Amino acid sequence: MTALPPHRLREPAHRVSDKAPSYWRLTAVLNAAVVWIAAVVAVVVALFLTDGWRALVIVVAAVAVLATLPWVTVAPGIRHRVHRWDVTDIAVHVRHGWLTRVDEIVPLSRVQTVDSTQGPLMRLFGLRTVTVQTASAAGTVAIACLDDPVAQDLVARLVAITAATPEDAT
Amino acid sequence: MSEYDGWRRLDVRSVLTAPVTVIRQAGVPAIAGLVGLASTGVGALVLLPAALGAAVLVGLLPWLTTEFRVTATHLEVRRGILNRSTVTARLDRVRGVQLEANLLHRVLGLTKVAVGTGVDEGQIELNALSVADAEALRRALLHAAPDATVGAAAPEVTELARLDWSWLRFAPLNLRNLLIVVAALAALASQVGELLPVTPDLPALGIEDGEIDGVWDLVTRFGLLALAGALLGTLALWVPAACLGFAVRWGGLRVTREPGRDGTTLRRTFGLLTQREATVEEAKVRGAVVTTPLLVGVAGGAELALLATGLDDNEPDVLPTAPRATALVVAADVLGERDAMEAPLTGHGPRPRRRYHVRNALTSLLLAALLLVTAAAAERSWDVALWWVPAIVVPCWLALGGVVAELRWRRLGHAVTQRYLVSRVGAFTTRRAALEADAIVGWRVRQTLWDRRLGLATLTATTAAGPEHLDVPDLPLEEAVALAARATPRTVAPFLAPPAG
């Protein structure tokens, strides 16, 4: 078989909510806080230790704290630039990730359920995640952090389209 | 209507099999408990029959409490005394029927029936029916309305494959099973080793006292000999064991196609002692996998499995290790086209090759650094010269890793045939999978940070069949997108960028 002519996926039309980066930053801070507190405790304890160990503990704590910083600082912005979605009458296209980039396409005729979820923090920001499930355990696609009204409209639209395409979902 | 109209019980003879199973499962702890009790003075003579009686009673329960019937539209099974439960399965949802008869079943003329309904909670099991009843039930479930089978001629059957005893030659070459045997032997050896006296009888081996300085010396002295002996011994045990295992498991294998309720079904019967039989609706088969382990491949063999939906095991194997030609013929027959398993594949270009070799070089470097540090530490702390270890290990690792990298790259390949998306992966064991484009329920194009630097991506087709996804790894990004667009144009085309330039 000859090689196929190369193709590219175009950038999906819609961005996620402008409030998403703040939400991502807050969750990152909450997750990182655990590490930070542990690091502070470790350093305080280390101050009472003998020399060799003290330096080691401080270095490890510093590395651990530094390792959390990208998620708090640059990641939310990059994600917001990358995360995009698009829906046609035939399929959903979602792009996400910041280090690892993922493009996902699901034909709506194969969608089994459309869910939307909103955690307590998301409610604070007025965000909602729409999840589309297919018959494949590996094939669940999420459009994360849409503005609540946008998400509700999207769910209604997806449900309408999937209901209108009564193909066997497997 | 037919004999299946009313509620029926399991075969009476199943009462005999159940206690045996119960005793086998509960027997050892029960006996251990009894021995414990007996040694404390309580009469085991009373307890043993009581325990046996209880086992028989427990064995009786399924027969007393299980009833089933096949109506024109449903299979219904009622179970339980206190918690009575009724399982109802629509006949048109029945996706496969499996029969299994172990030696005891066969002596009694029984067989166990398991009905797959496509529900993930598993199967409806009836343990056990008489062979004739099981066959009638199987036909009623899969082939036609029950009344139509009564008196009707046996359905038309085509044979796709049948075991040839010359396939035995592949059995010792399948090293996956060897690993299991070696692990078992090693476990056994460690048990035996603990029982042996700790110090070997040195004078008996012709060695003066004090000549052997510790375990290390013993190992270097006898290590090679022991290794050679172990290898020869394993081989001498392995070849007959593998052949015997193969013969017992696959003896009498027959793969046939029969007309079913909706379309055709594939039926496979096998087993020399325990006879197993599985029937699958062909409509649920969405692809196939041909696996070629290295040695088996060299000897011209291959294995064939299906990618199916709604079964207990969604990747059921069809043939054990068989001649490649046979596997390909059966695959072509089931898939409906030869290209899926036989057409040449498109390689993934030079970039993955570079990646695999660079990765190998880096891991070798890391290994070298680790070993050198260890050797240096050993020299400083215990004054032992271990420099020869990295000098031998690292070049070997590098060479072997190079072979693996090269093989892995050469095996990489993909294609879109008339109906299938095909992907081949593997280094020593090659796996060529063909998934029906129509069974693809989604796409994922994934690029890690490293992928992006090289312009590579992993394309994943998600599906309900088989392991739920088919991966085409380390493919140039534009080709990944093109492949998805070629396999399912209707889904992907709206999201393609206009061609550049």
Give a short synopsis of this structure.
The complex is a heterodimer of chains A (170) and B (501). With 170 residues, chain A is of the alpha+beta class. Chain A has helices spanning 20-46, 51-72, 74-82, 120-125, 148-164, and strands at residues 14-15, 84-87, 91-96, 101-107, 111-117, 127-134, 141-147.
Describe the structure.
With 170 residues, chain A is α+β, with helices and mostly antiparallel strands. Chain A has two domains: 20-77; 85-164, PH-domain like, CATH 2.30.29.30. Chain A is built from five helices and seven strands. Chain A has helices at 20-46, 51-72, 74-82, 120-125, 148-164, and strands at 14-15, 84-87, 91-96, 101-107, 111-117, 127-134, 141-147. In chain A, the strands form two sheets. Chain A has a four-stranded antiparallel beta sheet. Chain A has a three-stranded antiparallel beta sheet with strand order 5-6-7. In chain A, strand 6 (127-134) and strand 7 (141-147) form a beta hairpin. The longest helix of chain A is centred in the first third of the chain and has 27 residues, at 20-46. The radius of gyration of chain A is 22 Å and the shape is elongated. Chain B is of the alpha+beta class and 501 residues long. Helix content of chain B is 45%, strand content 26%. Chain B contains 15 helices and 20 strands. A seven-stranded antiparallel beta sheet of chain B has the order 7-6-5-11-10-9-8, with helices on both faces. A six-stranded antiparallel beta sheet of chain B has the order 14-13-12-17-16-15, sandwiched between helices. The longest helix of chain B has 37 residues, at 214-250. Chain B is globular, with a radius of gyration of 29 Å. Chain B starts with 7 loop residues before the first strand and ends in a 9-residue tail after the last helix. The model of chain B is unreliable at 146-152 (pLDDT under 50). Classes of the chains: A alpha+beta (170), B alpha+beta (501). Chain A binds chain B through residues 1-12, 86, 88, 90-91, 93, 99-107, 110, 134-139, 141, 169-170, and chain B through 309-310, 343-346, 415-416, 439, 441-449, 451-452, 460, 462-465, 468-469, 476-479, 481-486, 488, 490-492, 494-500. Strand 4 (101-107) of chain A pairs antiparallel with strand 18 (440-447) of chain B.
